[in-house]
Design goal:
- A hairpin with a 2-residue loop joins strand 1 and strand 2.
- By secondary structure, the chain is an alpha/beta fold.
- It has helices at residues 3-17, 141-144, 158-161, 166-171, 180-195, 213-222, 248-261, 269-277, 280-283, 303-308, 342-349, 355-381, 411-414, 435-454, 489-501, and strands at 28-31, 34-37, 39-41, 44-51, 74-76, 83-84, 96-97, 102-108, 117-123, 149-153, 201-211, 233-237, 246-247, 293-294, 317-322, 386-391, 423-425, 428-430, 473-477, 480-484.
- It has 15 helices and 20 strands.
- The chain has two domains: 40-69 and 80-315, Alpha/Beta hydrolase fold, catalytic domain (Rossmann fold, 3-Layer(aba) Sandwich); 327-376 and 391-505, no CATH class.
- It is globular and about 65 Å long.
């Protein structure tokens, strides 16, 4: 048993022994692996640090997730577990571990097993190198208050989660898996199918949603045959829909270079033995970008290719992004690669001739907004339902000083976790939420919950028709929630040409 499991089991025994009265039925559930004791606060009961797979350590490092081992007695599920190893600089003390494949569940306190409540499973972002389903911004309370069972997931990150090497491919006997983090999410969704009824959830009504790297993984799951039957609806927030995935041979070459940087020059089985002997901390030192890999097993092809061929999951689908997605890469200059389209694109955005703002507008629309349109169009062409949103809402106090809603800026609105007091996040100060901020947040949470419940994101205060030939997009903006037909058509048509010219289409 891993040290963390021993500590957790000891803590659970102490905590349970301290209870003056037996746990209420709503605080205790039985899943396939054993019994869990959670915590009720107000109208919501939560269950945290639930293992959905075996610890991916030792010989299980760089292997598909294996089933979680059963436990005896009652497992304490009142405290969040560690984050997966972060392959990036993190501020302050962060509890992280290679033994991290756990999920968290929030459900209405009044739930009953087998109740068939709608379920939402969230996949976090973080450039595939950081982040966690345990982050407070993803607290599922406000979804549970709306009658939704909300699940957040941890998955392997960095080179522990997305890694290829010729020796690893040989070890896998012709069925290479390089996207271990994606395989973790498949395992989490399979665990939900098997166990969510215990929390009152309906396994036939699961909405998978994610943001940034999580949004990319949602689009990848839409393109993955192994995901069939694991979710009934999907939402991709800032999902970079044209990201094609890294070819396996290229990823293997990158893996060899990475291994050499860690002093591993061996080949064949000795290479994997040496790599598995390294510490998780050594393997998680920052070392370049990480992206999903076209391994042919978890991810046979990129989303745009799958959607174009009609091979995507046939489920209702929402895609959208924010008005300043380029804040993620503020120094990129995509206009410099626009060639003959440069002047037309600059004119389409205008911006008073401010080239920095034009670069940002093109970056935003080429990375996220136009790919949203592409995947929605293809999904509808394939006879499926799609909706597209655009979030430009910024707190009033920031409107004069920021270009738009930053990448990831919608998350606290979606989850309703707006701050009551000002707080600093990175190099950005987030003001205390105003009544207008909370109104915009409620509109998003209500729409996401409505989609989970009915397959239609329309709400009594905001009708959101399906995507169609008019390219109608629902904008969450400073003036409220409004439908925008032919949304940004002039610039997005040019961006579509730009993508094709740059081999993105």
């Amino acid at each position: 048993m891993a040290l963390r499991q021993v500590i957790a089991a000891t803590a659970a025994s102490v905590a349970l022994a301290a209870f003056a009265a037996p746990a209420s039925a709503s605080d205790t559930v039985k899943v396939a692996e054993g019994t869990l004791h959670g915590a009720t606060e107000g109208q919501v009961t939560s269950f945290k640090d639930i293992p959905f797979a075996a610890p991916p350590v030792g010989d299980l490092r760089w292997r598909p997730p294996q089933p979680a081992k059963p436990w005896t007695g009652v497992r304490d599920a009142t405290q969040l577990g560690p984050q997966c190893m972060q392959m990036r600089q993190v501020q302050g003390q962060v509890n992280q571990s290679e033994d991290c494949l756990q999920l968290n569940v929030w459900t209405p306190a009044s739930f009953k097993p087998g109740q068939k409540l709608p379920v939402m499973v969230f996949i976090h972002g973080g450039s595939f190198t950081g982040g966690s389903g345990t982050m407070s911004i993803y607290d599922g309370t406000h979804f549970a208050e709306r009658g939704v069972v909300l699940v957040t997931v941890n998955y392997r990150l960095g080179r522990l989660g997305f890694f290829a090497h010729p020796a690893l491919t040989a070890e896998q006997g012709g069925k290479p898996v390089a996207n271990f983090g994606m395989a973790d999410n498949l395992a989490a969704l399979a665990w939900v199918q098997k166990n969510i009824a215990a929390f009152g959830g309906d396994p036939k009504n699961v909405t998978a949603f994610g943001e940034s790297a999580g949004g990319i993984l949602i689009n990848d799951l839409m393109a993955a045959p192994k995901a069939t039957g694991l979710f009934a609806k999907a939402i991709s927030e800032s999902g970079f829909g044209r990201v094609p995935g890294q070819p396996l041979a290229q990823a293997e070459a990158q893996g060899v270079t990475y291994a050499k940087g860690l002093g591993v020059t061996a080949t064949g089985p000795d290479a994997m033995k040496a790599l598995r002997a390294l510490s998780a901390a050594d393997l998680s030192k920052p070392a370049g970008g990480v992206t999903p890999i076209l391994d042919g097993t978890t991810l046979p092809e990129g989303p745009a290719k799958a959607f174009a061929a009609g091979r995507e999951q046939k489920v209702p689908y929402i895609a959208g992004g924010n008005s300043w997605e380029a804040s993620l890469f503020p120094d990129r200059k995509p206009l410099d690669t626009a060639g003959a389209l440069k002047e037309k694109i600059a004119a389409a955005y205008g911006e008073g001739g401010d080239m920095q703002k034009i670069q940002w507008d093109l970056g935003t629309e080429s990375m996220v907004i136009e790919p949203d349109r592409l995947l929605a169009r293809l999904h509808v062409k394939n006879g499926q339902k799609a909706w597209v949103y655009y979030d430009s809402y910024i707190p009033a106090s920031q409107r004069a000083s920021t270009h738009g809603l930053r990448h990831g800026g919608e998350l606290m609105y979606v989850f309703g976790t707006l701050p009551d007091q000002p707080r600093v996040q990175g190099n950005v100060t987030i003001p205390a939420a105003t009544e207008a901020d909370r109104k915009s947040s409620k509109a998003m949470t209500d729409a996401w919950a409505a989609f989970a419940k009915t397959g239609d994101p329309s709400t009594p205060t905001a009708h959101w028709p399906k995507y169609d030939g008019s390219d109608s997009v629902l904008e969450f903006g400073a003036d409220g929630v409004a439908l925008k037909p032919n949304f940004h058509k002039t610039s997005l048509d040019l961006v579509e040409q730009y993508a094709a010219a740059n081999a993105g289409g």
